[in-house]
Specification:
By secondary structure, this protein is mainly alpha-helical. The chain has one domain. The protein has 2 helices and 2 strands. It has a two-stranded antiparallel ribbon with strand order 1-2. The radius of gyration is 12 Å and the shape is elongated.
């Protein structure tokens, strides 16, 4: 599960990569005919893992 604050931060940081996709609040909207690129999904997952690890250290 992604935190509701994560998507807006990622959307700003990855603005160019998310161009053409609708970002609304904490949601990335994509369709089967226009999926998120695998490289972008990998980056998002890695950033989420880093966020979780940082939170766990506190």
């Amino acid at each position: 599960m992604m935190s509701s604050s994560m998507i807006p931060k990622l959307a700003r940081a990855r603005n160019a990569e998310l161009k053409g996709y609708d970002v609304s609040g904490a949601t990335l909207h994509f369709t089967p005919d226009k999926p998120l690129p695998a490289t972008l999904v990998t980056k998002l997952v890695k950033e989420r893992i880093a966020e979780n690890e940082k939170r766990a250290k506190k």
